[in-house]
Every structure is written in C-alpha cells, then in structure tokens.
Amino acid sequence: MTPKIASFLDSAGLATPCLVVDLDRVAGNYAALRAALPAAKIYYAVKANPAPQILRLLAEKGACFDAASLPEIEACLAAGAPAAAISYGNTVKKAAAIAAAYAHGVPLFAFDSIEELEKIARHAPGAKVYCRIAVANEGADWPLTKKFGTTVDRARELMLAAPGLGLVPHGLSFHVGSQQTGTPAYELAIAQVAMLFTDLKANGLELKMLNLGGGLPVSYREEVPGVETFADAIMRTMIEHFGNDLPEILIEPGRAIVGTAGVVAAEVVLVCRRIAADERRWVYLDIGRFGGLAETEGEAIRYRITAGDGAIGPVALAGPSCDGVDIMYEKSSYHLPLDLQAGDRVLIHDTGAYVTTYASQGFNGFAPLEEHYL
Fold this sequence. Notes:
Mean pLDDT: 95
Order of helices and strands: HEHEHEHEHEHEEHEEHEHEHEEEEEEE
CATH class of the largest domain: Alpha Beta
CATH topology of the largest domain: TIM Barrel
Distance between the termini: 13 Å
Structural class: alpha/beta
CATH architecture of the largest domain: Alpha-Beta Barrel
Oligomer: single chain
C-alpha cells in the first residue's frame, strides 16, 4: 500500500467496499516495464482495469492498448488513444463489432479459427491479422488454454490462407496464462512460434510481429520473480531463436501495470465459529467473489489481507451474498486478529487488476464497489 493510499484511507470517511488506486504507482509500473523491455511495444490489457483515469494516463505516456470488445475500444479512443495504437485482441468477436472497430481505424485483429478469419475478411477488408497459438500454461495461477488458441499446424494453414482472403498476415501471438510465475513458459512458447516463423518464411510469408501476450505476475502473498527477470529471459530467448532479425515485439500486460496500485477497503459483516471442532473463525466481508474477487475462484489468486494488530488466529473468508460458492479462502492458510469483530475494516492489497471489472451489477442487491483514483 502506497503512502498516498494510506493517507486517503485514514482521512476519508469511505463507504465500503471500495477500491482505492494510486495513479502514480500505475505510472511507475508502466515506466519500469518500459525500462525492462525497451524493445517491446506495450499494449495495456484494458480488461484488467478500464477506468478512464488509467486509460488517460497511459495514453498520455504513449502506451498502446489491447482491447477485448468494442466498448473497450471506444473507451480507449475517448481517453485520447489513437486508433492505430489499439489491437482488437479477442479471438471471438461479433461481426458488427469488427466492422465498427474497422470504421474507427483499428488496424490489428486477432483470430484463431478459419471462421473468425473469414469474418474479419468480410467486415475489415485489408486489415492486419495475427493468429493466436495455444501454448503450455504451466506455472500460471490463472490458466487460459481451454478457450483460446490453435495448434501450430493449424496456425500455419490459417496464416497461409489470409492473403487469399484479402487480409495482411502480420504475426503470431500466444498467452502463457495470467499470473504466470515462471519464465520457462515464455521461453518454450517463443521457441515454438519461432519455428513457425521460419516455416512460413520458407513458404513465402514473412511475418512482422510476435505478440507475447500478457501474464507478467505481481507478488501477492507469495513473492514471484520481478519484471526484470522475465524481461531478461524473454529477450535472451528471442535473440537465441531469431538472432538479429527480431520481429516487432508486442506485450499485453494488465496485472503487472495496475495490480499493485490498488487496495480494497472492506468491512467485516460477521465473525463466528461455524463448527465447534474447527478452530477457524469464519469471517464474512462486505465484498466477495460476486463483488469483484472472482479471481479467488479455486483460491487461485491469494491476496494479502490485513486488519489491525494483535494476536492472530486462523480464519476462513467469505463474501456477503446468500450464494454458497461465495467463499474466497477456506483451504489456504489465512490468519487475522483474534479480536476481529463486525464493523472492523479489512484491507485487501494489490487489487488494482481484475476487481472492478469482475464485480456484479447487483447480485443480491449489493451495488458494485466504489472506485477512487488518486
């Protein structure tokens, strides 16, 4: 938690739950990433946190944007981003959304199937396209392999078909999984797609771009390697497989730019012992999986949680709704003060990414959490 957020939480009479984001930390994370990977173009993953304040800040600093929908594209344009700086990175798009993005001037479209490629050809003629390849997601706390990406062999066929459809086969992409905690995933994926670059070049198709996707992690409860470690591994592997003939490199960080910039302030609704033989207390907060903490599904993302001082004991943590799956942490080992009671404040750290965008619009009548950008 930054001093700016701490001061704001102490001075403001805040209704909870709420998210407080330090924009200076966002700017610092972006600058650190640029310094670590100067050879790459940074396309901020808008889905991580699409707040206008964040989009304006990054647009002013010259960032590009990875958008997953037409509303995200329009939000970037409203924030001052040029259309040329936007990639339509979702491989599943409505025809009308493709046409509207094309009319706005968005130049770059992702795909991973012939059906999507043909759809882009019909509604964005002459556009640059890149094919997403499914790669191993080992090491990721939030894998993404089931829904997106195609095989290398199929990607070869699709890229060779693109010119015949009037499209520009611009490059390839992959995603090693969100909150990727190890560098080998990037190294293996780069090696895999580099062979396809070589194969396509031998068949007369010289690609210009490699999109490394997102996945760069932040430290929640457990420490993970820093961005410099990932950057060194990425560039070493790129040079190993491409030599001096490097393609244009794109990365799509979201969590790594905004994750550590935010803190959620929540209120304890209830503390109780549900089972006499269980030493844990159950702590119910006014935010849960439906209020923005969706990434606690399967206890995948384990946020650092603090509340006051004093002796601590084991707890399970759940949200306020009447849904039985609204439990954040039951198996992971969490400890909070023994004197914790209803009405106390709890802070959930490093929640700048994938919280506001995951919050329901009124499940059980609970309003989405408020947002404050400093």
